[in-house]
Amino acid sequence: MLNVGKIEEGFVLDHIEAGKSLSIYHHLQLDKLDCMVAIIKNARSEKMGKKDILKVECDINTLDLDVLAFIDHNITINVIKDGELVDKKELTLPKEIKNIIKCKNPRCITSIEQELPHIFVLTDEENEIYRCKYCEEKYNGHF
Amino acid sequence: MPMRHLMNPLDFTVEELDSLFDLANDIEKYPARYAHACDGKKLATCFYEPSTRTRLSFESAMLSLGGQVLGFSDAGSSSASKGESVSDTIRVISCFADICAMRHPKEGAPMVAADKSSIPVINAGDGGHQHPTQTLTDLLTIRSLKGRLGHFTIGLCGDLKFGRTVHSLINALVRYPEIHFVFISPPELKVPDYITDMLTEKGISYEEVIRLEECMPDLDMLYMTRVQRERFFNEEDYVRLKDFYILNKAKMALAKDDMLVLHPLPRVNEISVEVDDDPRAVYFKQVQYGVYVRMALILTLLEITV
């Protein structure tokens, strides 16, 4: 059994689908933060069989967690302060996501316009449908 | 009120469209009143791909309002050929003109321009995505000649699978009451499922038929479209289908006396020339309404009242 110590302040992202922790690490831009991050892969889970966990020690206001809902809204976010669990955050689908996914429509202006952000807008909350802000192409891929 | 652009025909509410169409009808009735409404104003027509008719319609609209026009008519004669972005181009154009009509082969390009622009931008067609002023033209033509938007049966005929104009018109018409749609196309070019799903969800009635003759007596309006050669993978399919839905005098004889025939033009051979003299053929009047609606749109976006 591998032991990873407690964190004083930050987040524990639990119930990440096994194998997705590294992509979440990049999308939360944790590589740009000067803080302690533990990436636990393939941890045993009664519910999921295998899961990933991310522990991030940082000021709880520094991370934009909206993107997590888009990636996987089953992730549990535990907010830690002074070594204690102080909050569990519910994930809601973000209304807009920027530069997380790319528009794959070759006829879209994003395919040629220099440094244009790839923005997707939530157009159907019930069916979790995102469309490119510019060409309205539906995002069909899985994250 | 913040500056407005026109990207999509649904950008305007039904009430706003009513005001726009009232203005267009007033322009039609009293053109002299509007002849100097845009004195000193300039329209930039930024056409990254050729579209002579749409560009000339915009230019005619601005000239009829007393304004002036400048612009380019293909990407080769613009700075785009040197690699300039749409964002940069519109910032430059904003210094030269008061309003811009933009056509671009890439979908969403006018929206990129609108985001960076300090003047109103009108989407004059972006690839296969939107062509809102065509839809406004269609709606104004129907409203002016039929006296109403709603309470009618409309047949849409031809390439319903790829036809941007048709999809856009359907989306605009579903906001009006009691419209029954009849989709007339070969099975290969039938209207996409997402449109029929949307109609079912909204409880709007529609039917799909193969032969134009079948439904002619029921129609209050017939919207014809061209079957485009470039939509087909091979020449054989194109040749087989292109003559499938030709409107001629014999088919017109089956229609109501007050049925209207619309077409976004250009026509190839889907409407026989012999139909042109029939008073029910209104596709050339439709072009004139295109100028009126663009005049009304320019005035509205520039917030000019007469």
Describe what you observe in this structure.
Chain A is mainly β. Chain A has 2 domains: 10-89, Alpha-Beta Plaits (2-Layer Sandwich); 96-132, no CATH class. Chain A has helices spanning 21-27, 66-71; strands at 10-17, 36-45, 49-57, 76-81, 84-89, 96-98, 119-124, 129-132. In chain A, the strands form 2 sheets. Chain A has a 5-stranded antiparallel sheet, with helices on one face. A 3-stranded antiparallel sheet of chain A has the order 6-7-8. In chain A, strand 4 and strand 5 (84-89) form a beta hairpin. The longest helix of chain A has 7 residues, at 21-27. Chain B has 2 domains: 9-130 and 290-301, Aspartate/ornithine carbamoyltransferase (Rossmann fold, 3-Layer(aba) Sandwich), CATH 3.40.50; 133-287, Aspartate/ornithine carbamoyltransferase (Rossmann fold), CATH 3.40.50.1370. Chain B has 11 helices and 9 strands. Chain B has helices at residues 14-29, 52-64, 86-96, 109-116, 132-146, 164-173, 193-202, 212-215, 235-242, 249-252, 283-301; strands spanning 42-47, 68-72, 99-104, 121-126, 152-157, 179-184, 206-209, 221-224, 260-262. The model of chain B has no long low-confidence stretch (mean pLDDT 93). The interface between A and B is medium-sized, with 16 and 15 residues.
Keywords for this structure?
heterodimer; A: 143 residues; mainly beta; Alpha-Beta Plaits; three-stranded antiparallel beta sheet; 8 strands; 36% strand; B: 306 residues; alpha/beta; Rossmann fold; 2 domains; five-stranded parallel beta sheet
Fold topology:
The complex is a heterodimer of chains A (143) and B (306).
Chain A: E1 10-17, H1 21-27, E2 36-45, E3 49-57, H2 66-71, E4 76-81, E5 84-89, E6 96-98, E7 119-124, E8 129-132
Antiparallel strand pairs in A: 1-3, 1-4, 2-3, 4-5, 6-7, 7-8
Chain B: H1 14-29, E1 42-47, H2 52-64, E2 68-72, H3 86-96, E3 99-104, H4 109-116, E4 121-126, H5 132-146, E5 152-157, H6 164-173, E6 179-184, H7 193-202, E7 206-209, H8 212-215, E8 221-224, H9 235-242, H10 249-252, E9 260-262, H11 283-301
